[in-house]
Structure formats: structure tokens, C-alpha cells
Automatic annotation (TrEMBL):
<dbReference type="GO" id="GO:0005849">
    <property type="term" value="C:mRNA cleavage factor complex"/>
</dbReference>
<dbReference type="GO" id="GO:0003729">
    <property type="term" value="F:mRNA binding"/>
</dbReference>
<keyword id="KW-0694">RNA-binding</keyword>
<keyword id="KW-0507">mRNA processing</keyword>
<keyword id="KW-0539">Nucleus</keyword>
<dbReference type="GO" id="GO:0031124">
    <property type="term" value="P:mRNA 3'-end processing"/>
</dbReference>
<comment type="similarity">
    <text>Belongs to the Nudix hydrolase family. CPSF5 subfamily.</text>
</comment>
<dbReference type="InterPro" id="IPR016706">
    <property type="entry name" value="Cleav_polyA_spec_factor_su5"/>
</dbReference>
<dbReference type="InterPro" id="IPR015797">
    <property type="entry name" value="NUDIX_hydrolase-like_dom_sf"/>
</dbReference>
<protein>
    <recommendedName>
        <fullName>Cleavage and polyadenylation specificity factor subunit 5</fullName>
    </recommendedName>
</protein>
<dbReference type="Pfam" id="PF13869">
    <property type="entry name" value="NUDIX_2"/>
</dbReference>
């Protein structure tokens, strides 16, 4: 038999998941996109790159459960565009501080007393944009010396309960991992890779005695 050597024990990190019905969902004033098309966004990115250098962005993976299966919270724009909550870092801003700021801007109530206490966890992955195109990769291609964007994806451990406030022009939807898996045609390569990135964690499902159907929350 083939000798595979000594298998070293590895620490498996646990994630506490709370059911979707634990959370309250409201609305706030709309947040309009700065660009009307992908081409316009890439052109603006090129102009900023010439002034500021590489674009640094951060996004958060927020996970809940419904009927004992993990669901990822995604922002839905229009009928067919999905994205993780996050955005561009300011010059000199740390990734953790920037992600907390962006999560508050996208998902928190306008009233500061109701802001969630964002717990930023592990880095799940980094994606790189080698050129001013839509293509991004979880590595820097060998012929690229100056990538145009670096996107860092973090796990965010949600509190047991909190209030989300979503801009009126967006929807926050909970998508099960089985819908995301191997589904880049619908969600793109970054979001569809989340099930694999979460595979190294153990999920701890925290459930109330009775789980009601979420009336104020759309699921995929």
C-alpha cells in the first residue's frame, strides 16, 4: 500500500449560525450606483487607478441558516445581478475598518444605536483583477506585475440577533449553499466559490424551539 506519511491533525474552526427568523429587516433611503453600466465602472476604475494606484476592495460573507442549511446573504440589484456587501477602501484605511464601514453603510439602520457589532473573521480568499476587464482570478497571473484591483473576502460572524436596514433600491436575499455551488453562470465566479471556501469550517446551528417562515425576507 502507498505510504502517504503522517497525517497531522488540523484545527477545524466552528462558525455559529443563527436562523434567518432571528433577524429583523427594514428599509432606508436608496443608494444609487455610481455607474450605469459595467463598462462605465471599468472606465472610472481606470481613471482612479491612474491617480491612486491599485483599487483595494473588501466584501463580507454573512451566513445564516434556514431549516438547518447555511444561507449566504447577498444584495440583489435589479433582476439578475448579485453582490456581497462591501466596497472600496479609502486611502490608508485598514481592510477591517473599511469593511465595517461598508457593512454599516449597506446593511445597518440610519440610527447609530441600532448598528450591529460587526465581528470580522477570517480572510476566505483574495481575488485579483489583472486588467480593466470583468475577469478576476483567485491568483495573480504570472505575466501580470501590476494588478488593477485586489478584492479581499472576509467571513463575518453575525450576532444572534440584529436589525438590518436595506436601501430601497436593493434587496437582501438569503441564498442556500446548494444554489451557489458550481453556479457561476448565475452568480459569477467569486460568489459561486463560497461553498468551497466555507468547507473548512464546522457549522453550529443555533435554533429556537420553533422556526417560523420569514415573511420580511426573500430567499433564493
Amino acid at each position: 500500500a502507498e505510504n502517504l506519511g503522517t497525517v497531522l491533525p488540523q484545527r477545524v474552526q466552528a462558525i455559529h449560525l443563527y436562523q434567518l427568523t432571528n433577524y429583523t429587516f427594514g428599509v432606508k433611503d436608496p443608494q444609487l450606483e455610481k455607474d450605469t453600466s459595467v463598462d462605465a465602472r471599468l472606465q472610472r476604475m481606470k481613471q482612479k487607478y491612474e491617480k491612486e494606484g491599485i483599487r483595494r476592495t473588501v466584501e463580507g460573507v454573512l451566513v445564516v441558516h434556514r431549516h438547518g442549511h447555511p444561507h449566504v446573504l447577498l444584495l440583489k440589484i435589479g433582476n439578475s445581478f448579485f453582490k456581497l456587501p462591501g466596497g472600496r477602501l479609502r486611502p490608508g484605511e485598514s481592510a477591517v475598518d473599511g469593511l465595517k464601514r461598508k457593512l454599516t453603510s449597506k446593511l445597518a439602520s440610519p440610527i447609530a444605536d441600532y448598528h450591529p457589532d460587526w465581528e470580522i473573521g477570517d480572510v476566505l480568499c483574495e481575488w485579483h483583477r489583472p486588467n480593466f476587464t470583468k475577469s478576476m482570478y483567485p491568483y495573480i497571473p504570472c505575466h501580470i506585475t501590476k494588478p488593477k484591483e485586489r478584492k479581499t473576502i472576509f467571513l463575518v460572524q453575525l450576532q444572534e440577533k440584529c436589525l438590518f436596514s436595506i436601501p430601497k433600491n436593493l434587496k437582501l436575499i438569503a441564498v442556500p449553499l446548494f444554489d451557489l455551488y458550481d453556479n457561476s453562470a448565475r452568480f459569477g465566479p467569486v460568489i459561486s466559490s463560497i461553498p468551497q471556501l466555507l468547507g473548512r469550517f464546522t457549522f453550529i446551528y443555533n435554533t429556537l424551539p420553533e422556526e417560523n417562515d420569514p415573511n420580511a425576507m426573500e430567499t433564493s
